Amino acid sequence: MAIILGIESSCDDTSAAVIRDTELLSNVIASQKVHEKYGGVVPELASRAHQQNIIPVVDTALKEANTEVRDLDAIAFTLAPGLLGSLLVGTCFAKGFAASAQIAMIEVNHLHGHILSHFIREPGGRNSHPDFPFLCLLVSGGHTQIIMVKNHLDFEILGETIDDAAGEAFDKCAKVMGLPYPGGPVIDALAKEGDEKAFAFAKPRVAGLNYSFSGLKTSFLYFLRDRVKEDARFIENHRADLCASLQYTIIAVLMDKLVKASKTTGVKQIATAGGVSANSGLAKALLETGEKHGWQVYIPPRKFTTDNAAMIAVAGYYKYREGKTCGLDVSPNVKLS
Prior knowledge:
By secondary structure, the chain is of the alpha/beta class. It has two domains: 3-126 and 304-321, 2-Layer Sandwich (Nucleotidyltransferase, domain 5), CATH 3.30.420.40; 134-300, ATPase, nucleotide binding domain (Nucleotidyltransferase, domain 5, 2-Layer Sandwich). The chain is 42% helix and 19% strand. The longest helix has 32 residues, at 234-265. The protein is globular, with a radius of gyration of 20 Å.
């Protein structure tokens, strides 16, 4: 048995969690509202907020888990990818904590954490997770990838975005429509009231299993520019239909490559991860496509789709089990995939 403290600080959420093997004992998140008025995360403000939040968040996580520092076997922390300042706060805290508590340090790739969120076991809850190998559609604000997951620590990227991520397309198109940040959840809510076939936007054509969303963003921008010239209230009068059509197009692009990946590999265990996996339209498309192609589909609970330390802790557990610890000389890596 191993008790792991997890730390997540890759972007604008400060989170700490405690797990016993894969059983979740606590998961505390401090979100930063300051970025909303800027329409995106401001790195300097995020770093300062992490510095203010990390100690009380860790203290609360330990208390909720009824765990003392002496009970811990290791501290797992996000080393990459993310905002440099934010990663530095979490990394430096982990180094100081590990040195003072004399426990092991485990560096975790943020994206690995998202994938392994399926293996978090909640007390009294079902522990339903995909069998190996499985395909994971990892979709977030910064990443869009199709990954072959061979075991807890063996991953192969089959396809990824060559420019913008799906979550970034949601947020930037939302900003053009005057919607608040983050735009993805707002578009999801409005799309339920609109007609997904009301408007058509360009679908990028990229070879293989890679993605591209920059052309879709440009198509959407030019479409709105031309329509607003004709009717200044066009966006206001058609906001729900715009959201529904945009969401439909992004999901169609995601699903097309995922179907190809499944046919190419023969793998029918399909999972999603990352913030965009909380999108209700994507969940519906996955379940419908899965039924058509005989997939077993796994969608993580909404609370584990956004950035959280539980996923870092469970990834740390599997690395700790294999003796994969690190030293005090590690440094954050902003762009590591």
